[in-house]
Amino acid sequence: MFTRRRFCGMMLATPALMSSSSLFAQEFPSRPIKLIVPYAAGGGTDAIARLVAQAMGEKLNQTVVVENIATAGGNIATQTAANATPDGYTILMANQGPMAVNPHMFKSLKVDTLTAFAPITLIAAAPLVAVVPQKSEFKDFKQLVEFARANPGKVTYGSAGNGSASHLATLLLNVVAGLETVHVPYRGAGPAIADLLSGQTNFMITTIPSVSGLIETNQMRPLGVTSKQRVATMKDVPSISELGWPDYEASAWYGFVAPKGTPRAVIDALNKATVDAISEATIRSRLANEGAQPIGNSPEDFEAFIKSEHKRWAEIVKRSNLSIN
After folding, report:
1. For residues 120 and 92, what is the distance between their CA atoms, to the nearest angstrom?
2. Per-residue pLDDT for 230 more than 50?
3. What pLDDT does residue 22 have?
4. DSSP 324
5. Do 221 and 149 touch, CB atoms closer than 8 A?
6. Domains assigned to the chain
7. How far apart are CA 306 and CA 310, in angstroms?
8. Are the C-beta atoms of 258 and 120 separated by less than 8 Å?
9. Can you give the pTM of this predicted structure?
10. N or C: where does the chain have the smaller number of CB atoms within 10 Å of the terminal CB?
């Protein structure tokens, strides 16, 4: 029987139902999505971001617009993304620098990356490569290390910025090999590579996509890769591990996160679109050609991975006594 009491109960419940469902009154996404990349255009992170963004946008039937914010080692991009409206229309290209290292390295960072974001998925992980200009005096990796060890403070290396994969991989090398090299940070891999080519710095450990063309045209010489095993697309290049530093291993990882508070249904939609995108044979092939291994895990698995990376790099930064205001 439809009583007055039952009618009043339904009316009281209606606002809550409307509140929880109003976010999805329109099918997500109904407008373009902004993807913030914390490095300059032209580097490895940017290349992978644009590749996945295009395929992801096709899955969502919307444009994913890439915005590069290459300042303060990725911290400005991180803060911008963290402060964005949590509706799924702003996401961040997250990697180990801004997400897992900068919180321990930058005193001025105001964002707790473990609590400020809702993980979407880990897209891929990729080894890096140590390179020098073709005209460099260093013909192999051991020669570079021996010179750096004998001349502390005289060998310089460029990076895509403080906390970038290129910076961290070299920082780890300094710890493992007992080196004292001088860091020259740039706003992205592109300008760092340009200065390396012109002889302004001595070497660089960087993402494979950012220098593969220069290696193919003999403008750069690869000395070693940062994975334990050799990379399929660079079989003639030894791993740093096999050259005598078995404890050395570094990689660049790439994922998507959204501001904390983004509805779980939106996170799931973004996760599915991203995982579907990197599952396509053409995308997997292009990632593989750039040395990256596609992953595409759950938000929970990505969250656990970020926490583990946070803990690992806290120890490395502490051992390096590295702090930036």
Report:
1. 10
2. yes
3. 46
4. B
5. no
6. 32-125+253-320 (3.40.190.150), 127-234 (3.40.190.10)
7. 6
8. yes
9. 0.78
10. N
